[in-house]
Amino acid sequence: MFGQLSHEVEVNVPASEAWELYGTLRLAKLVREELSVIEKMVIEGDGGIGTILDLTFVSGTPLSGYREKFTKVDNEKRVKETEVIEGGYLELGFTLFRARFEIIEKDNDSCVLKNSIEYEVKEDAAANASYAKIDVVAKIAELAKNHLIKNKAAKDAH
Questions:
Q1: What whole-number distance in Å separates Cα of residue 91 and Cα of residue 124?
Q2: What value does the mean pLDDT take over residues 111-133?
């Protein structure tokens, strides 16, 4: 069983500024600092393809944690993809769980943060597809949006 979910939010900052956050480890570090569901995050790599994030979630969350790998970082198209490579969704019968982060330029001063997840679940675990939710990537997008707007306001004030 294959599924896809997406979330978009417009931000009044240039696409290049949004990509400076999304296309680097800055987004992972922001998430680690701001999302209360993450108990621990270990980063292995420089933010490029092959970087691994080892995530441990606080107790009471549906997943205890997982490892995800950056499988695509395209600075020209402003697209980053990660895939779960160990634990988490894979233990629930998923054969694929991919998050895609895309920055789409609207004009010189605004862009769209498009976040999506793609997943594939074994037929005998199809009931677990309900664990694939857009909530987390939507929360990351809102967190990124607020961070970008706050930084833009600070720059504009100087």
A1: 13
A2: 95
Confidence of residue 158 (pLDDT cuts 50, 70, 90): low
DSSP string of 28-69, one letter each residue: HHHHHHH-TTEEEEEEESSSSTT-EEEEEEPTTSS--EEEEE
Counting DSSP H helices and E strands in the chain, the numbers are 3, 7
Residue with tokens 């993450």: 38
Structure confidence by residue, pLDDT tens digits, 31-62: 999 988 899 999 999 999 999 999 999 998 88
Q: Check residue 102 and report its DSSP letter.
A: E
What is the Cα–Cα distance from 134 to 8, expressed in whole angstroms?
11
Catalytic residue among 72, 80, 133, 145: 80
Would you call 145 a catalytic residue per the annotation? no
- CB neighbour list of residue 136: distance below 8 Å, 6 or more residues apart: 37
Indicate whether 91 pLDDT > 70.
Answer: yes
**Predicted model pTM:** 0.91
Class for domain 2-157, per CATH? alpha beta
